[in-house]
Design a protein that fits this description.
With 273 residues, the protein is an all-alpha fold. The protein folds into two domains: 195 residues, no CATH class; 62 residues, no CATH class. Helix content is 70%, strand content 1%. It is built from eleven helices and two strands; from the N terminus they run ααααααααββααα. A two-stranded antiparallel sheet has the order 1-2. Strand 1 and strand 2 form a beta hairpin. Helix 2 runs parallel beside helix 4 and helix 5 runs antiparallel to helix 6. It holds the Pfam family EIID-AGA. Keywords: Membrane, Transmembrane, Transmembrane helix. InterPro entries: GatZ_KbaZ_carbometab, PTS_IID_man.
Length: 273
């Protein structure tokens, strides 16, 4: 049951905007024990200051949000908005179960991380990289500019809108998504798109050319043409597969890069590439 002082403890657009701007530092204070917890507290402090005016209430709220937290930083404002609504409800309703605040945050950070990683890291970033890299390889200055715009405009727009979405919708929206199975469908769809982009980039961005020839004169055939007749860009696919295999075997990426550099230099020196 809410108190008669509800209007005094109402989160406004001002506090939500402050949360939005503070959310950009979610990985600035990352730690191995509780990961994003300190950054999460920093982001939600404007909400807590608006609602709680005693030292005891503020201390309890800060401790509440210092628990373990980790999710995709681009969508964290959705959870922040939901928690803002729950903190408001906690302040205005003496019978509110305060443990639900951390429980909801903990239960949502995993599924949202799967969705966010698939879309922002696994899809949008790859699309931006593909467009930007293809232009950059041609010496076009629009390459890096488009990369930043394609990735950051949707990300910042979603981050801003999700703050108010989370606050308005509270916990109901995401519970409906999970109950209807839409979360898994969205994650699967984003993963498929990401894999398609990776496949396209493998064929267009990895260029391996073997100039060695078999035969002499007009009848000479390059080894490269033989491979391309089997499957176009099969060498690029093979290089990608070899690197992927080594990563699966937990070989350090730095060692793979060094190995590729040595292999490329040696191959060029003896005339293979």
């Amino acid at each position: 049951m809410k108190t008669s002082n509800q209007e005094e403890h109402k989160v406004t657009k001002k506090e939500l905007n402050q949360v939005f701007w503070r959310s950009f530092q979610m990985e600035f204070s990352w730690n191995y024990e509780r990961q994003m917890n300190m950054a999460y507290v920093f982001a939600i402090i404007p909400i807590l200051k608006k609602l709680y005016h005693t030292k005891e209430e503020m201390s309890a709220a800060l401790k509440r949000h210092l628990e373990f937290f980790n999710t995709t930083p681009h969508i964290v404002t959705l959870i922040l908005g939901i928690n803002a609504a729950m903190e408001e409800e906690n302040k205005n309703d003496p019978e509110f179960d305060v443990t639900a605040i951390d429980s909801i945050k903990t239960s949502l950070m995993g599924p949202l991380a799967g969705l966010g990683d698939s879309f922002f890291w696994g899809t949008l970033r790859l699309i931006a990289t593909g467009v930007g890299t293809s232009l950059a390889l041609q010496g076009n200055i629009l390459g890096p500019i488009l990369f930043l715009l394609i990735f950051n405009i949707p990300h910042v727009l979603f981050r801003y809108l999700a703050t108010s979405w989370g606050y308005r919708l509270g916990t109901g929206f995401l519970k409906k998504i999970q109950a209807n199975g839409m979360m898994e469908s969205l994650t699967l769809g984003a993963s498929i798109i990401g894999l398609m982009v990776v496949g396209g980039m493998t064929a267009t961005m990895i260029d391996i050319n073997i100039p060695l020839k078999i035969g002499t004169g007009e009848n000479a055939v390059t080894i490269q043409s033989i491979f391309d007749d089997i499957v176009p860009h099969i060498l690029s696919l093979g290089a990608f597969g070899a690197v992927f295999y080594l990563l699966k075997k937990e070989v350090k990426p730095l060692m793979i890069l060094i190995g590729l550099a040595i292999f490329g230099i040696a191959g060029s020196w003896i005339g293979i590439f």
